[in-house]
Write a structure and sequence with these properties.
Layout lengths: L1 H18 L19 H22 L4 H21 L4 H36 L5 H11 L20
Helix pairs in contact: 1-2, 1-3, 1-4, 3-4
């Protein structure tokens, strides 16, 4: 679901950015460029892709850091692709460059942070083979000494009853 939702989101984004600026419907102003047929479906695919990707992330149980970084990087790369290849489409080209560069940088930073965090968490659980680590492991697993200040027979008998 995560991969499918992100793929749908990326496909719809590329197609919408290639379309550029447009408008449709009954408006009080003159529409310079009508939206092509299927634009509504692409907008639905874009929004649905976000929702499906989030549900897939929740089901996978991998947290949001790594999938979020992948999604931002993928969307940024797709938008930058449109900015580069969208010649003659001023709205799509400028949006492709601005969204693409911003999302690509954010995604790569997010990915680097999540990978670094994942590596650090792995290092915390990996046992260290050193004198200090060995003595800490022995101390943690050794039986605790008995508290000899209070033995079970030392309490005075209860009166009454």
């Amino acid at each position: 679901m995560l991969v499918g939702g992100t793929s749908g989101l990326g496909y719809a984004l590329v197609r919408l950015l290639h379309t550029g600026t447009c408008a449709s419907g009954n408006t009080p102003y003159a529409i310079a460029r009508q939206c092509p047929s299927g634009t509504g479906w692409l907008i639905g695919l874009l929004m649905g892709g976000v929702i499906v990707a989030l549900i897939g992330t929740a089901i996978a149980g991998v947290g949001l850091a790594f999938p979020g970084g992948l999604a931002f990087t993928g969307v940024g790369a797709a938008a930058l692709y449109v900015g580069i290849t969208g010649a003659g489409n001023a709205g799509g080209t400028s949006a492709g460059y601005s969204v693409g560069i911003t999302f690509l940088v954010m995604g790569l930073l997010y990915l680097a942070s999540s990978i670094s965090s994942w590596r650090d968490s792995r290092d915390d659980t990996t046992p260290k083979l050193s004198a200090t680590g060995l003595s800490q492991m022995i101390a943690a697993t050794a039986p605790k000494p008995l508290d000899t200040t209070k033995l079970p027979g030392d309490e005075p008998p209860k009166q009454g009853g």
